[in-house]
Amino acid sequence: MINKKVNNVQDALQGIQNGMTIMLGGFGLCGIPENSIAELVKKETTNLTCISNNAGVDDFGLGLLLQKRQIKKMISSYVGENAEFERQMLSGELDVELTPQGTLAEKCRAAQSGIPAFFTPAGFGTEVAEGKEVREFNGKMHIMELAYKADFAIVKAWKGDEAGNLIFKGTARNFNASMAGAAKITIAEVEQLLPAGSLDPNEIHIPGILVNRIFQGEKYEKRIEQRTVRKIF
For residues 146 and 116, is the Cβ–Cβ distance under 8 A? Predict the structure, then answer.
């Protein structure tokens, strides 16, 4: 029986070194690999290139790595609520590659599927297209985008089994699903880790073949970026 379980987050992140490129799942603070990010902070891994939709908030998620100056480059589509991200970007301290959100998702999915490049109309005629090959398809101009090349992908799931099969809950599926298997090594942290064969095959979102290591996380805060409530009159 295939067993990809590792004992803890420390074992899961073995091999991550300074200067590597890492994909991190999540959207805002939804579905982010909280345990893995916290461990990267503790390990003081530096000069990282991080591929993620955004960079969390100032004191949570990838914002913790930004506070410690552990990220040298962010590849993302949204600055969001992270004032430190914005400050480092505008001051030139942080190299930022802003990418249309759909393009970012497709560059992950292409890497997951082994597709080296694809054409998209998004970004044509803007700074996004500078230096990229342009072709016309069906009367519309497209630019060529290369699939990402990452050393590690770290994703977060609701349930997983020891063979690496994953089930995401609700919108936490977001970028996690397209990043699994999109790097040389994929690490999955899960809220519930079950024996292989425990999951209903019809409910599995990501098959274990796309996951190299899996561990059960703990103490998830699951913060909300902004909470808006209606006044009761």
Answer: yes
CA–CA separation, 165 vs 214, rounded Å? Answer: 9
Q: Read off the tokens for 206.
A: 């990501």
Q: What is the distance between the alpha carbons of residues 156 and 175, in angstroms, rounded to a whole number?
A: 10
Please list the residues that pair with 135 across neighbouring strands.
142
* 62 vs 80: CA distance, rounded Å: 12
How far, CA to CA in Å, does 138 sit from each of 102, 117, 118, 141, 142? 20, 19, 15, 8, 10
- Structure tokens that stand for 194 in this block: 């079950």
Give the C-alpha separation, 37 to 12, whole Å. Answer: 12
Residues 84-99: pLDDT tens digits?
888 999 999 999 999 9
Residue 25: phi, psi to the nearest 5?
Answer: -70, 170
Q: What share of the chain is helix, strand, coil (3-state, %, to 5)?
A: 25, 30, 45
Cα–Cα distance measured from residue 8 to residue 63, given in angstroms and rounded to the nearest whole number: 23
pLDDT per position as a tens digit, 15-35: 999 999 999 999 988 999 999
Angstrom distance (rounded) from CA 88 to CA 96: 9
Nearest-CA neighbor of 174 among 24, 26, 22, 23?
26
All structural domains of the chain, each given as residue ranges with its CATH number in brackets, are 9-118+147-216 (3.40.1080.10)
